[in-house]
TrEMBL record:
The keyword Magnesium does not apply. Its main location: nucleus. GO terms for cellular component: nucleolus. It holds the Pfam family Brix. Residues 1-16 have a biased composition (Basic residues). This is Ribosome production factor 2 homolog. GO terms for molecular function: rRNA binding. It comes from the Eukaryota. It comes from Sparassis crispa. PROSITE patterns: BRIX. Residues 288-301 have a biased composition (Basic and acidic residues).
Length: 339
């Protein structure tokens, strides 16, 4: 672990503040680490993935003796030193040839890992088509229901989403979507739904052999005229093309995952705008004004307290036929006013 460093000047203080947790995090930085032996296929695949991840990618050119599933201390040291939260470790051995390990970090510690084997690979140079601009956000497409039901593919989908996700933005222009990353699966074998695939007593190696392969394809988009405001979109293969096989994996610790998914409390202004938890009988109109609905019990208007004025008082009982009395009353009132 790195020791706590106290900033000596304003420049180092700003650098340390930039690494502190934020409500909206910066783009994730991925470090590509080469093992003691990678091989031509793994090295080329890492180079192609790094080109898709740029400019948020760091490559370690030297070979390193690193085994993520046995000892992750080196990864934690590099994560804190380089302010990185993603790792791609390439290692090829006799037992597990052409292997890539995706590692996700949280708070300087390993959150979860997933190892895949590279079966087939085709680089960008083989596709004579225009390439996407580095740094643009891709459109992710997952074409299988197993990405929402099977735990192994749910983890892989989450890792790939974090790996290729760039800067957090509110909206994007249609022309800004230059490339699409499509992740699909091979036909699911019938034995995957059998009791042997879900039996806890079955070995993990036997279960991994039943999982279908993962096909990763990258396409560029072409916006063509369609006669309407919505253009016609065509896809052209850009590369790279990868066929992966799921191998070992490490699930996230429940407590650490709970901390990673924890969100900061919403500000009062955001809650009033409707961004936070919806409150009962309160809504925000199109003009941005907060409106509330109040429910009041049925009122008894007979007990309503009104303003005391002479016009609301009950009139005195005066006979209708006594016209002389009215004249006498008027004359008496005039005498009083004259006095």
């Amino acid at each position: 672990m790195l020791r706590t460093v106290k900033p000596r000047n304003a420049r180092s203080k700003r650098a340390m503040q930039a690494r502190e947790p934020k409500e909206v995090e910066d783009p994730r930085i991925a470090i590509f680490v080469r093992g003691t032996h990678t091989g031509e296929k793994v090295s080329a695949a890492m180079k192609e993935l790094m080109s898709l991840k740029r400019p948020n990618a760091v490559s370690f050119s030297k070979k390193n003796t690193v085994r993520p599933f046995e000892d992750a201390s080196s990864l934690e040291f590099w994560a804190q030193k380089n302010d990185a939260s993603l790792f791609v470790v390439g290692q090829s051995t006799k037992k597990r040839p052409d292997g890539l390990t995706f590692v996700r970090m949280f708070d300087g510690r390993v959150l979860d890992m997933c190892e895949v084997g590279v079966d087939n690979w085709v680089g960008m140079a083989e596709f004579k088509t225009p390439k996407a601009t580095p740094g643009h956000k891709p459109l992710m497409h997952f074409a299988s229901e197993l990405f929402d039901t099977h735990p192994r593919f749910i983890q892989l989908k989450s890792l790939l989403m974090d790996f290729f996700n760039g800067e957090v933005i509110d909206s994007i222009c249609l022309t800004g979507l230059e490339h699409v990353i499509s992740v699909s699966l091979a036909p699911t074998p019938a034995s995957l739904n059998s009791t042997t695939a879900t039996d806890p007593s079955a070995s993990s190696k036997a279960q991994d052999s039943l999982l279908p392969k993962v096909h990763v394809r990258v396409y560029t988009t072409r916006l063509l005229a369609s006669g309407t405001r919505i253009p016609r979109v065509e896809l052209a293969a850009m590369g790279p093309s990868l066929d992966l096989t799921l191998r070992r994996h490490t699930e996230a610790d429940p407590e650490l995952m709970k901390q990673a998914l924890k969100r900061p409390k919403m500000r009062k202004q955001d809650v009033e705008k409707g961004l936070g938890k919806k409150r009962k009988n309160m809504e925000v109109d199109e003009m941005g004004d907060l409106r509330g609905r109040i429910h009041v019990a049925k009122q008894d208007l007979g007990k309503l307290q009104t303003r005391k004025m002479k016009g609301l008082k009950a009139a005195r009982d005066v006979p209708e036929d006594s016209g002389d009395s009215e004249d006498e009353g008027r004359s008496t009132k005039r005498r009083r006013q004259s006095q």
